[in-house]
């Protein structure tokens, strides 16, 4: 599962140890702080404790209110999970002991298990292979930038969108991730980072899957990640990508969150885009651009257009001119992020040379488009999205998804 030129490290950075037994009479442990432990109270809660990583503090409080617990318990448990990385009730030492025992008896909150970590020895990019409770595998990738640590989160197991250049879609969509499984990716990586005194500062929902096809869970995850009692990541440090699901772009605009939308353009015209990205047959570029214009007007946020450069497919100078014309129709400042294609063995494409990438970028700039070329992080590990997962599935004798 691990490329020969990469480094795999053991999955260290487990959950912080319990702070030890709580002394009798410790704050919050007094008799009468709630009816925890009373036989007459039902043990069933509105949401199973195993799924609590996907709840906001007020929802945790509402669940515990059925046991007569005060509303601040929700915030306490949320902070233990999302700020401190603790998911064992027994270790949540500011909860009454009896409540801890009672919650633990129902089962601790569940987060993905780290199955492997690949580390690029030169740029520090870490790719985590995570196993979900039902045995499904996903990837999450941590990248180091000058401005902070950015985590690229998966939103689905597999992907239905069928983009021709992508490894994540080769076996189709298996299922959506829950908000708990998305928040769990952030939680376990932050737990890992805590060992060296670091935390994730930026989120991109751009890993395996089409996040807008799983919009409710994605929005819930963003709210959890943003909450000041948890990871506290600014909405302005969050980016959600889409291959171009027009109705969901409009719905996202209505949410009014000041996040960045990243639209995967990847082609200069409908003919080529429909060939590379089947979603374009349903929502062609004119409709996509209408939705983008509306998004910018409603949110006041700039859209980033992602463009994977594939040699001789979409990287010629005339393609750059067409892209500039398409984006000029948006009537405002636009930003294009060029991404030299990361080779995937199952795909018959070639990555362009640095000269071709620079020529494409220069052609866009000459036409007034803001351009960045994405630094190729993780080149010494399997950098393309979905490759590590596919390798693990193949090793387990299941290359189907
Ligand atoms: S590029 Fe994104 S939307 Fe397209 S198939 Fe891959 S994961 Fe899905």
UniProtKB/TrEMBL annotation:
Reaction(s) the record says it catalyses: adenosine(37) in tRNA + 2 reduced [2Fe-2S]-[ferredoxin] + 2 S-adenosyl-L-methionine = 2-methyladenosine(37) in tRNA + 5'-deoxyadenosine + L-methionine + 2 oxidized [2Fe-2S]-[ferredoxin] + S-adenosyl-L-homocysteine; adenosine(2503) in 23S rRNA + 2 reduced [2Fe-2S]-[ferredoxin] + 2 S-adenosyl-L-methionine = 2-methyladenosine(2503) in 23S rRNA + 5'-deoxyadenosine + L-methionine + 2 oxidized [2Fe-2S]-[ferredoxin] + S-adenosyl-L-homocysteine
Annotated Radical SAM core domain ranges read 145-380
Q: Say where the protein is mainly found.
A: cytoplasm
Q: Name one GO molecular function term.
A: methyltransferase activity
Q: Does the keyword Cytoplasm apply?
A: yes
Q: Which terms are listed as keywords in the entry?
A: 4Fe-4S, Cytoplasm, Disulfide bond, Iron, Iron-sulfur, Metal-binding, Methyltransferase, rRNA processing, S-adenosyl-L-methionine, Transferase, tRNA processing
Broad class of enzyme this protein falls into: transferase
Q: Which residues bind S-adenosyl-L-methionine?
A: 209-210, 241, 264-266, 342
Its Enzyme Commission number? 2.1.1.192
Entry keyword Cytoplasm: yes
| Region of interest (Disordered), ranges | 1-44
Q: Which Gene3D superfamilies match?
A: 1.10.150.530, Aldolase class I
Tell me which Gene Ontology terms the entry assigns under biological process.
methylation
What is the free-text note on the cofactor? Answer: Binds 1 [4Fe-4S] cluster. The cluster is coordinated with 3 cysteines and an exchangeable S-adenosyl-L-methionine.
Q: Which residues bind [4Fe-4S] cluster?
A: 159, 163, 166
Q: Where in the cell is it found?
A: Cytoplasm
Residue ranges annotated as coiled coil are none
Q: Where in the sequence does UniProt note compositional bias of the Low complexity kind?
A: 10-37
Protein family membership: Belongs to the radical SAM superfamily. RlmN family.
What function is annotated for this protein?
A: Specifically methylates position 2 of adenine 2503 in 23S rRNA and position 2 of adenine 37 in tRNAs.
Q: What is this protein called?
A: Probable dual-specificity RNA methyltransferase RlmN
Which source organism does the UniProt entry give? Thermaerobacter composti
What taxonomic classification does the UniProt entry list for its organism? Bacteria, Bacillati, Bacillota, Clostridia, Eubacteriales
């Amino acid at each position: 599962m691990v490329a020969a030129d990469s480094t795999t490290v053991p999955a260290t950075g487990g959950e912080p140890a319990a702070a030890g037994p709580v002394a009798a009479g410790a704050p919050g442990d007094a008799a009468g702080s709630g009816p925890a432990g009373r036989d007459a109270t039902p043990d069933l809660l509105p949401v199973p404790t195993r799924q609590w990583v996907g709840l906001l503090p007020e929802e945790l409080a509402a669940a515990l209110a059925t046991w007569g617990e005060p509303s601040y318990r929700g915030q306490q448990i949320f902070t233990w999970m999302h700020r401190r990385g603790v998911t064992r009730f027994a270790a949540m030492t500011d909860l009454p002991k009896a409540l801890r025992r009672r919650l633990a008896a129902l089962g601790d909150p569940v987060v993905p298990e780290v199955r492997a970590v690949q580390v690029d020895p030169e740029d520090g990019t870490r790719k985590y292979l995570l196993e979900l409770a039902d045995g499904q595998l996903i990837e999450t990738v941590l990248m180091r930038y000058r401005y902070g640590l950015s985590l690229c989160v998966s939103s689905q197991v597999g992907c239905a969108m069928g983009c021709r250049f992508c490894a994540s879609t080769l076996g189709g969509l298996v299922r959506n991730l829950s908000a708990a499984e998305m928040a769990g990716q952030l939680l376990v990586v932050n737990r890992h980072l805590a060992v060296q005194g670091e935390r994730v500062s930026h989120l991109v929902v751009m890993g395996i899957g089409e996040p807008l096809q799983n919009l409710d869970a994605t929005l819930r995850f963003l709210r959890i990640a943003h909450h000041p009692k948890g990871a506290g990541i600014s909405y302005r440090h969050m980016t959600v990508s889409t291959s171009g699901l027009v109705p969901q772009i409009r719905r996202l605009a209505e949410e009014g969150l000041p996040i960045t939308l990243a639209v995967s353009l990847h082609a200069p015209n409908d003919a080529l885009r429909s060939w590379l990205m089947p979603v374009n047959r349903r929502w062609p570029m004119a409709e996509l651009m209408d939705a983008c214009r509306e998004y910018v007007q409603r949110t006041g946020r700039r859209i980033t257009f992602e463009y994977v450069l594939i040699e001789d497919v979409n990287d010629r100078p005339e393609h750059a001119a067409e892209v500039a014309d398409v984006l000029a129709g948006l009537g405002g400042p636009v930003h294009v992020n060029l991404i030299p294609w990361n080779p995937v063995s199952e795909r018959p494409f070639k990555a362009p040379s640095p000269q071709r990438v620079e020529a494409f970028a220069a052609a866009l700039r000459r036409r007034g488009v803001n351009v960045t070329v994405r630094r190729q992080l993780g080149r010494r590990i399997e950098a393309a999205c979905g490759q590590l997962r596919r390798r693990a599935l193949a090793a387990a004798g299941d290359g189907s998804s």
